[in-house]
Automatic annotation (TrEMBL):
It comes from Caldimonas aquatica. This is Phage holin family protein. The lineage of its organism: Bacteria, Pseudomonadati, Pseudomonadota, Betaproteobacteria, Burkholderiales. InterPro entries: Phage_holin_3_6 (IPR009937). The chain crosses the membrane at residues 49-79, 85-106. It holds the Pfam family Phage_holin_3_6. Keywords: Membrane, Transmembrane, Transmembrane helix.
Length: 137
């Protein structure tokens, strides 16, 4: 009999498996989405670190060349009259630049956004939602 509804006993026996299938599908979907978010954030973090490293390395190299040529220019210009003063000023400029760069690097490290903040936020939202559903059951 194709048109007859299933008996109440059959409907009750299928119900747990239907719920479990739906729960497994929901969990799989949530996990897939969270892994995609994590992957995107990991890629963004890697790009950010690579760009910061390359920009920092280039800045340090250019600053070193610039300061070296500036120091050599000062030493050559004052070679006959103030040799020691020229070397002292050049050393002070190099040390000052190193300290300024070090302070900037420490501040940039401390103020960097927390890695994977969006993923952690979504996982906390999921946990809260599951807790609310569990408390309501």
């Amino acid at each position: 009999m194709a048109g007859t509804p299933p008996s109440p006993d059959a409907a009750q026996s299928e119900r747990p498996t239907t719920v479990l299938r739906r729960l497994a599908a929901d969990f799989t979907s949530l996990l897939r989405i969270r892994l995609e978010i994590f992957g995107l954030e990991a890629q963004e973090q890697a790009q950010r670190w690579a760009a910061l490293f390359l920009a920092g390395w280039a800045a340090v190299q250019l600053m070193c060349f610039g300061l070296l040529f500036l120091a050599l220019t000062a030493v050559v210009a004052w070679w006959d009259t103030h040799r020691v003063l020229a070397f002292g000023i050049a050393a002070a400029v190099f040390v000052g630049a190193a300290v300024a760069l070090g302070v900037w690097a420490v501040q940039a490290w401390r103020n960097a956004p927390a890695p994977f903040a969006v993923t952690r936020g979504e996982l906390q939202t999921d946990a809260q939602w599951l807790d609310d559903r569990g408390a309501g059951a």
